Amino acid sequence: MSLGAGVDKLSTLVQLRLKTDVRVGSRWILLAIASYILWILFAISSHYSVSLPLLTIGQSLGLIGTLAFAASTGLSFLVYSLINRQNKHSAREQEIAWQALREIQSRTAPENLGVLLPLSATEHDFSNLLERSHEHSAFLWSLLVLVPYVGWVFLMVALYLLTESSNAHGRMERILFEDLGRTLAAEGRRQSQPNSRLPDLRNSMAYLLASAFTLGIVALSWLYVMIIGEAAHFRDHSTLEPELLRGFPESTAGGRRAA
Amino acid sequence: MVQSPLRGAKRIFFDRIFERSYWTWRKHPAIIVPSMLGSAITVIEQSILTTGAIIFVSVLATEGTLSAFLTQISSGGLTPSLLLNLLFSSSYTPLLTPIIGVAVVAYLLTAILGGGFVYSSEYGIYLDAWNNDKATVGSVVRHGSVRWRAMAWTLFLSNLITWAPFVITFSVFIASALNSASVAGLIGLVASSILLEFALIASLIIAIFTVYSYPAVVIDNVSGLRAIKNSFGAASHNFGATLSYSIVRVLFLILLTVVVVPLTSAIGLPLSSLIAAILSLFLTPVLHSTKTMIYYYSKPNVSEMSFELSDPIWHDISRRLPKVAWMKIRAGLVEVGRFTIGPRNLPFHLLSFLAFGLGVFLGDYVSINGVKSFLLSTGYVSGRGNPNVVFPQVLPPVLGADIFLNNWLVSIGTGLAGIGFGAPSFATILFNGFILGLLVPLSTLTMLLAAILPHGVIEIPSLILAGSMGIKLGYAAMRRLFGGTIPRNSAEETLSAGSDDYLSRTLRQTVYVVVGLAPLFLIAGLIEADVTPIIMRMFGWTF
Hints:
The complex is a heterodimer. Chain A contains ten helices and no strands. By secondary structure, chain A is an all-alpha fold. In chain A, helix 4 (57-107) runs parallel beside helix 7 (150-186) and helix 6 (138-146) packs antiparallel against helix 7 (150-186). Chain B has helices spanning 14-27, 32-63, 66-75, 80-87, 93-132, 137-178, 183-209, 213-219, 225-237, 239-266, 272-297, 313-341, 346-377, 396-416, 423-439, 445-481, 493-516, 518-530, 532-538. Chains A and B meet through helix 4, helix 5 and helix 6 of A and helix 1 and helix 10 of B.
């Protein structure tokens, strides 16, 4: 691949942020709450044989169950969106890092140890990032969440995995971008360091236990925390990536457009 | 292509493959054809059973013993043991043995050989669509013709290995249940029921590992045990993706059939036909394509699937897909018109009509010679709905839509089942005529017409047309088969290629015709649900 083509690809990947880093609407949380309430209502109605006015018990259960399932599809969509966007964000970022490393590698002379040493450290960070990044199946977890009642347990597990991935991603990404910045600085390209603030780490085990003890109620607020957290992370990237792109002056307007 | 060491071990991304499978399905609608053929195989299997049943009751009617047979069945409550005792009593065994023997052999041959053709065309077309960005109806025929033997053998072996533990233990369980009167028999029953659970789990675990047997036939060009071995290898090396696939597939099925259908049925929204359509036309091709490509990407010489972005599937399903479907239906309607008036198709129309007429005649005969007297003996009153059948309360437009989807799926199966040399389409039309014929002697002609004509005037010709298309497809398949094995570079090669092309064109035409019949069945379904009952009451029917 020629130098220009690689940088163009980098530019394109940064621009794709507008498609991958889309904030999940927090209003979906209302459907998650509705699903929770309606399935409880279904259980009570079924256990005590209570029917809604003008309806038989069968029709009543059918109506509540159908509404509960419809609301669950909203919850399922929320889980799908959260996992899917994290996957896409993570995959795009890996591609950006990969392209950036290849670019630096291709323009660095073999005797330029001043650049090769930080580059080697960055490559090591990149390998670590790949190793610790696990893509969870958004389709699988969104379907598991749809299963009545048992789906709450799957919701907690999905949120636990998502939180763990998000924590690992935040940590590894920060180290990678710092080292990438150092490598570019060693090349003599002006590169500001990423925000020195450590990303907020969430205690996934505490959330999991709290959710289990409250029969899933805390999981609903956990969902909200994840939506907000993901949005904040995407916001950080809106400054981080164009900043990185400035280290590749061949990348013309790409960075500015993405910014 | 080789994976860069920096990027680590190759990974298989289930979601990326699933998403791309969806877009492949959208871009190449021809990949639905093998799934439709799969439904057609089910219709062929059903037609074998129904033909056997029609022959059985017709012979009993001729002998004048049908009414007694029906009374015997209904008097003792329809328990499986009573039915078995009755069927294998000396009065019926001489008649039943050849019918059951032929039906079982035909059923198994259809399932294995038909499955071989369908699966080899199915997995072959997925590979074409992914790797060559090209999938045509012609390639369905080509893949089916090339690898059907290898696939049939793999299908047989794979199912044998997967389900043998369960089937053997189930047989032991049934044998124990029949001998559970003694203490030893009871202990045997308990032991076999525990064993049955373990056997079921064992079969399900084996099913996860044999999941790639069919794609292996197409991708690796192997068959039988080798394909199963490759499948075991791929599944164990990529257990995460394989398990994700298996769970997603099972969950789709369970959620749709066990959760959605009962819940919605309780409030008068029968969705079973809609779900059958979704499963057959959308989920099966997308999931099978996903499975094929998981196996493809598990190959050491294939590099990791690259990062690519596509539009969200949900947006496409809700916004663009209905428009595309309508365009296909419009194209199908045009094809329906062409096929109906095409003079060369007249023999097929006549044959299909003959099948229907023969069915009505046989049904009428059987009804007069047994069924009618039996029903009257149970208290049936002419002109009344069956008091023993409780119809669920269903919202009228939804009932119409459900009837439409059910009839449309039957017509899809009827049309495409014709690939079994036309006989299954003929048998399905005959069976539908037979059912109608059974009703003829049960009421006056005016009342019968009031119950059938309002919707039947559209529904019956549409079904006969689907049968006619199926018979034409059968004719094309026969031309392909009896074209013989033509040596390469001979003058006859053109003839063979021509037959192949004719089969492809006819298969394509069949798909368009059955798709184009959808609006006709929709109109008929809405009339049947909302108008026919009113007209029936006007002509003296009571419910």
